[in-house]
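Lab meeting notes turned into a lecture example. A postdoc, R.K., suggested we walk through two folding results consecutively so the class can see how the record format repeats. The first protein's sequence and structure tokens come next.
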Amino acid sequence: MNDTKTERPFDAVSSAREVMRLALIGSLATLDAQGRPYASLVTTATTIAGEPILLLSKLAVHTQNLDRDPRASLLLVGPGGETGDPLAGARVSLTGTVARDDDDHLERRFLARHPEAAGYAGFADFAFYRFTVDSGHLVAGFGRIVDIPAADLLVDVEKGLAETESGAVSHMNEDHADALRLYATQLLGLGDGPWRAVGLDPLGLDMLCGTTPARLDFPAPVTNGGDLRSTLATLARKARSDAA
């Protein structure tokens, strides 16, 4: 997280969205056959709109629970505070329903964030699932506890940007790896390394270096490929200027 974010006034919606975009794992709570809560660890990604994506095996207890009752809750935790206290970071508890979704968009975005999953994602018992969010509950510190409706957590995506996203991510990774590293080191204050883009949306660019996620917010929302190219070029120029 860059320094400018910590200086801004608290924004519950932005904080919750950031946790949802950055989280690589979460705790999924489902209901067993007796109606008792059952929690399990899952890896997560997001759709371009911000809905969580899960890769689940039909052999897993949580998947069998969801087949009976799709209602679920998902706890996502942001980076911890400087004190090392795990409760110092922001976290979001989402409530909603989970259902299988064979849209290629889910597979692409999940595997971009979790490339190791490519080794088993094609197994017959595995499938991708979309978490349809009903509401969210953000805890981001003392006095920063807010209930947020799904309409505020998710972002509207124009068709032009949705169609551009996959190609733009590939283009950044193949031709502009230097810019991605500068985004991370100069604009976000993160360590150097083989940073790569894993997704983008109207509000920002998601990146990953090993198991370290990062989120670069855009100065203004983008709605199409032209806006996106202009925004990424402007950010690259700023990063190069800061590095000089």
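The second example is placed directly after the first for contrast:
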Amino acid sequence: MIRVLVCDDQALVRTGFVTILDAQPGIEVAGEASDGRAAVDLARRIRPDVVVMDIRMPVLDGIEATRLLAGPGVPDPVKTLVVTTFNLDEYVYRALRAGASGFLLKDATPAQLIAGVRTVAAGEALLAPEVTRRLIGRYAARVRPAAAPPGAAPQLAPRELEVLRLIATGQSNAEIAATLVISAETVKTYVSRILTKLDLRDRVQAVVYAYRNGLADPN
């Protein structure tokens, strides 16, 4: 059973998410919150498998709430799925850096919301390729060095570096396998090695790492 905490300050949106998720087999809404501070407190108390987190909220916004639940230095992070709209691009990038495992647009379909929760609960990152290129590429370009630092990922073998660059474009394991003409299982092994060697939690952090260290082209 995947236990979910839904956090959104709009009662109608929150109720909609709760209704959709609670109706699914294997998913249970364990709690609701209307602001980021309440979400952090409740998540720490009930330890949900996934927090569905809005960004713009009173008291404490979703980015800071995500950082407190899943950010750097958090010993036992809670998987967080951020929801937003296209006109909040920079907030999304900041949320991913804060530790979010992925994001959805607020106009996502119920099926996409359900799939997103299951994906994040399984430990995978939820990144649509076109959104990855548009958002992360644009904002990572602002913070990465003008030129790639020498030996940005010296611990990675050439093939692992190649896989990391493809991850940064938003490709799934199956797509990377097709691009490199290898099996999806082999790609999965490479991804695991990359995360371990670079001390990264998930694919989201790998994407941010690639752009910030000049290993991927934001254009």
